[in-house]
From TrEMBL:
Transmembrane segments: none annotated. One of its GO terms (molecular function) is beta-glucosidase activity. It is an enzyme of class 3 (hydrolase). It comes from Glycomyces terrestris. It catalyses: Hydrolysis of terminal, non-reducing beta-D-glucosyl residues with release of beta-D-glucose. InterPro entries: GH, GH_1_N_CS, Glyco_hydro_1, Glyco_hydro_1_beta-glucosidase. The keyword Hydrolase applies. This is Beta-glucosidase.
Amino acid sequence: MAAIPLLPDGFTWGAATSAFQIEGAATEDGRGRSVWDTFTATPGKIRDGHTAATACDHYHRYEEDVALLRRLGVDAYRFSIAWPRVQPDGAGAANGPGLAFYDRLVDALLDAGVAPMPTLYHWDLPQALEDRGGWLDRDTAHRFAEYAAICADRLGDRVPHWITLNEPFEHMALGYALGQHAPGHAYLLDALPAAHHQLLGHGLATAALRAAGAPHVMLTNSYTPAIPASAAAADTAAALAYDTLHRRLFTDPVLLGAYPALDGFGLDGDLPFVRDGDLAAIAQPLDGLGVNYYNPTRVAAPEPGATPLPFEIAEFEHVHTTDFGWPVIPSGLTRTLLDLTADYGDALPPLWVTENGCSYDTAPDPDGRIRDQARIDYLDAHVRALADAVAQGADVRGYLVWSLLDNFEWAEGYHQRFGLVHVDFATGERTPKASFDHYAELIRAQRP
């Protein structure tokens, strides 16, 4: 296999996780209840009734996981801070024991030579805030800024990179529009206030981080090229509508200070939940834009009356898929990075691929080795796709694999394994897979 082209000096290699998916310790150190605790306790919401009460037990085994990061040779580790662990009710004074856990984690990472990259919000809203309206309530944006200030005050002297939100589109769409994720609402387009209030929270939190001296602040969105199902004008229009909702709704306000036109969704004129000053608050200058990429999306015009939306999702034909059924199309990452570069121009900060990975449930061989060649092939192809985008002019500063560990995969429970490290969920035992060694060697080869 030919060597991957060298990426620019200073390029950051890393791995990523999120708090609810790995920490466990759901009732320890004063942690409050989150919307995901409530959702997982609701019968029928999670496959086979799995819960994240223990997950990977990272709360108790974080030193073991930091040792794995050191062995992997990464420059940075993206994790998330659990808002209910820091503010059990989402407001008021900080919970000291909860913050102390992140103190220990940050110090352990720095001792291992790994830069901490915390994400402040990876979907685990304190249930007390959801009881008051969640992200449909404007006040949640202000509570988020207060929480960001608490985290920055405690950890900011040691944290070089901050991320405000993770994938606000998915959180709005799956949690508030379709009901497939916590908090489980199915409001369709009436979920749009949850998009705006998340972005407002991002802007207010960014200002709070800046006030605390944060040197590097990012927002992470998911991005997926919208591919028309055919050359027909109706399919092209459907793909443009999907791109507006998925990409532009969550990127234009941050980078351009304005929402895209939503007339294709029957929304003409100003959005009623946007107040004077909101867009200026949202459009705080950023040091980077996080890109989570897994696959492109094939989009078709809907059949009349089939959906209230101006598009429907179509399957790709004749492509390999992961165990999750997601199409494996590495060129989509190249296109994503180049499209952002072309479409946003000078307004675009440097890009960071903050998640990229695949689910394959490769069982251990009789000798105990986990030879997950499919994941090796996936990672190799996607890093090459990233290098291709850089060669064509995209300013990309880092790449972080999803995920370090097999973990609780939201509504799928423990049925999807994304990790470089296999986790036995009965015992907590960690076993690095062949892809772990491959990624370590890839990083070493990038450091001549």
